[in-house]
Amino acid sequence: MQTKIEDHLPANRAVITGHGSFVPAKILTNDDLSHMVDTSDEWIVTRTGIKVRHITTDKESTAHLATEAAKRALERAKLSAEELELIIVATITPEMVFPSTACFVQQALGAKKAWGFDIAAACSGFVYSLHIVQQFMENGRLNNALVIGAESLTKITNWKERTSCILFGDGAGAVVLQRKQNAGRGILFSTLGADGTYWESLCCRAYGSRHPVSRPLEDPEMVYMQIKGREVYQQAVRRIVEAVTECMTRCNLTLDDIKMVISHQMNARIIESAAKRLNLPDEKVFINIQDYGNTSAASVPIAFDECMRQGKLKKGDIVILVAFGAGVTWGANVIEM
Ligand SMILES: CC(C)(COP(=O)(O)OP(=O)(O)OC[C@H]1O[C@@H](n2cnc3c(N)ncnc32)[C@H](O)[C@@H]1OP(=O)(O)O)[C@@H](O)C(=O)NCCC(=O)NCCS
């Protein structure tokens, strides 16, 4: 399909040529949770849409999930790890404080020619990363890149706090991006935002430089994710609607032009309420939160991979990826497949 902004785009474009995802085998059901805190399957499904989530064992960590997802994406792209020039890992649950998770992935894949770094934009990390790759490819400085969203959120989950522990899961999703000239497809447009005044809506206070591991914590719960659910809910709906509307305006797209909107999976009710405000019909909104919970930066690429594997997107289709998360941060990418 010839998009309406095609004429204004550079010849060099960032095209997704491979996708993959990986989640730990261990599953935690709502019934399992009802034995841990005062909750029920009925409450969780009604309020969030989540049925099960995958959780890492003590032997699994973020770099492991990221590497497995990356291998699947490389295989689909028919690209060898040696051909990669850049690896970005979007994560807020990195392998260590440093070095970056990207370096662990680079080593595990044997991607000897790639440089790499992590992005800490929480649930918006994958969408942020695609925009970064888009810039390098459009200016001709990068040919082959790997972008991964990977999280082990259940390692910083407070299993005694029922409002938050029901929400999160672990996993990773990855895409391979390649610079193509005059391909007539690829990332068309990205919009990103942040508002640090809301940092307390969603945060994990320990163990950064403000509350270092070397000193006793004034509150032991600081090691866990803390969320102000209601505040996040309202902000998320607003920012998703704004980001998708901006994508449509800037790319001159109507609802008919859009094949699918793939949102960060934070709560099915948030996604549905944003979709309603955008007048998006159900078949144009991809939801898979029931099987994974909220996997933060991994959520959009896991959903994208699943959407592709279900054959819901074909060449020429327009898809909008959109996310909102801690920071607070938000963003969206318009992609012509
Ligand atoms: C967390 C979230 C599911 C809570 O749903 P909600 O409809 O806003 O529910 P509330 O927080 O208003 O709580 C309603 C009641 O349910 C109770 N409740 C909270 N968690 C519960 C649980 N797991 N099981 C049963 N009851 C629960 C509350 O204690 C409260 O009881 P009260 O009325 O007696 O005080 C929802 O706000 C949400 O999804 N927010 C965004 C999630 C998020 O932050 N994602 C990460 C960033 S993208």
Distance between the termini: 10 Å
- Write the H/E string, N to C: EEHHEHEHEHEHEEEEHEHEHHEE
Decide which structural class fits the backbone: alpha/beta
Radius of gyration: 19 Å
CATH C-level name? Alpha Beta
What's the total count of β strands? Answer: 14
Describe this structure in words.
The chain is of the alpha/beta class and about 325 residues long. The chain has one domain (about 1-335): Thiolase/Chalcone synthase (Peroxisomal Thiolase, Chain A, domain 1, 3-Layer(aba) Sandwich), CATH 3.40.47. Helix content is about 30%, strand content about 25%. It has ten helices and 14 strands. The protein has helices spanning about 30-35, 40-50, 60-75, 100-110, 125-140, 160-165, 230-250, 270-275, 290, 300-310; strands at about 10-20, 25-30, 50-55, 85-90, 115-120, 145-150, 170-180, 185-195, 200-205, 225, 260-265, 285, 320-325, 330-335. α3 (about 60-75) packs across α4 (about 100-110). The chain binds coenzyme A. Coenzyme A binds near residues 163, 166 and 202.
How would you briefly describe this protein structure?
The chain is of the alpha/beta class and 337 residues long.
